[in-house]
Design brief:
Elements (H helix, E strand, L loop, with lengths): L1 H25 L13 H15 L8 H25 L5 H25 L1 E10 L10 E5 L12 H13 L4 E4 L15 H5 L7 E3 L14 H17 L3 E2 L3 E7 L2 E7 L14 H4 L20 E4 L4 H7 L7 E4 L24 E5 L5 E2 L8 E5 L15 E10 L4
Parallel strand pairs: 1-13, 2-3, 3-4, 4-5, 7-8, 8-9, 9-12
Antiparallel strand pairs: 2-13, 6-7, 10-11, 10-12
């Protein structure tokens, strides 16, 4: 019922605004029968809504229809609602309403065409005296939230082009940090060849995100578990190394880089399958959690899908040198540098540093910083992005000279 609240609210507000606009501007200015066509868009929307409410075959099977419904709802309801509100302002209301309505239409049309096709390569240099000598210059490519089912139709080619961009970075290691699917592993079949083409000297490490557990399908537990296993097996078939609350060691001579990967852990209502102590087995040897800033003698890279896990779940147990997350997508929208994500997440996109004094900031000059890098995503559950391009992140390790 909670998920129905937003479409019910929007359609209800759209009806109120349609009635207001009809009585004020249309019915009062014409006697033509054509004026009744004003109600057709709302009737179409209500028809879609009734279909989903009573005759739905599920989100996975009706992905395109669902997206069409959402698109029409945004293009029809929101401009009318905002125009109605603005029109109440004396003198300039109508003109302001037109500008706002046209602005919404522009944002939506741009976001589903040019906006979603854009890919940004963001470069980060992580400088610390803790970087092992042999890993100075080591290059890690991070990508997250592929939501592969969205790469279909006119967007299908974008995934291969994005994979080519990953390979063009000539990475030492590639890390995928969850949400490879929207609903089911069937989405991955079409793009098996593209994903299998990702190459790095030390391979591809991957973890599970909240979408990868098929919980949005509302299936019996045994069917859900079977789909989860298929998702894991499918990624392994790409040649990727799936980390399920476990860790790996990459060695360069006498130096080592420890990769820790845990299952999804998020604040409610998101699943909490992550077991940080199990994931760190062999790295943490004490049962007493270290204090913030205490990282022991090994250099660690943590993969954890939801950035909320960093503060609430990871740091109380271990302080990784680098933590890679995704999940937020940056809400796939920003305007004048502001994203709604900043109202939902403490860390939602870009770099965040835990400094030696325990403070978290966007930048650091400390000798032993700990980095959380949150990717704003490789795809999107809905193929729309406005001023929030799809991204891959290239993190280069640099040994800091303390002399």
């Amino acid at each position: 019922m909670v998920k129905l609240f937003i479409p019910i609210l929007l359609i209800g507000l759209c009806f109120v605004s349609d009635l207001y606009l009809f009585l004020r501007y249309i019915n009062s200015t014409t006697t033509s029968l054509w004026k009744w066509t004003w109600w057709i868009p709302l009737v179409v929307l209500m028809g879609f809504f009734v279909k989903f409410l009573f005759f739905s075959e599920g989100l996975a099977k009706e992905y395109n229809t669902t997206n069409l419904f959402l698109l029409l709802m945004v293009l029809i309801c929101i401009p009318k609602i905002l125009f109605s509100i603005c029109s109440l302002i004396p003198k300039v209301g109508i003109y302001l309403g037109f500008l706002v309505a046209l602005g919404i239409v522009y944002i939506v049309v741009y976001g589903i065409t040019i906006g979603f096709t854009q890919l940004k390569v963001r470069h980060v240099t992580f400088e610390s005296s803790r970087v092992p000598e042999a890993f100075d210059g080591y290059k890690i490519v991070q990508f997250s939230d592929a939501h592969t089912g969205s790469f279909r139709g006119p967007y299908a080619h974008l995934l291969k082009e994005s994979v080519d961009s990953i390979n063009a970075q000539q990475p030492d290691l590639v890390c995928f940090v969850g949400d490879i699917e929207n609903f089911t592993p069937e989405e991955l079949v079409q793009h098996r060849e593209a994903y299998s083409a990702i190459k790095a000297k030390d391979g591809v490490m991957t973890i599970m995100g909240n979408h990868d557990y098929s919980t949005y399908m509302r299936l019996p537990k045994n069917e859900e578990d079977a789909l989860v296993q298929q998702t894991r097996d499918m990624q392994r078939s790409f040649g990727w190394d799936m980390l399920i609350n476990e860790n790996r060691t990459i060695r360069r001579g006498a130096d080592s880089l420890y990769i820790i990967g845990e299952e999804n852990w998020g604040l409610p209502p998101f699943p909490q399958y992550g077991d940080i102590k199990k994931a760190c087995e062999g790295i943490i040897t004490t049962t007493t959690p270290p204090s913030r800033g205490d990282r022991g003698g090994v250099f660690t890279l943590m993969l954890s899908h939801d950035p909320n896990a960093w503060r609430h779940h990871i740091l109380p147990v271990i302080t990784p040198d680098i933590t890679l997350s995704g999940h937020t997508h940056g809400t796939q929208f920003s305007i004048f540098g502001w994203s709604p994500s900043s109202m939902i997440y403490e860390e939602w996109g870009g770099e965040y540093y835990l400094n030696d004094n325990g403070n978290i900031s966007r930048t650091t000059t400390k000798e032993h910083p700990a980095l959380l890098n949150v990717s704003t995503g490789f795809g999107g559950n809905f193929p729309f992005r406005f001023n929030m391009p799809r991204e891959i992140v290239v993190i280069t390790l640099k040994k800091k000279n303390t002399k």
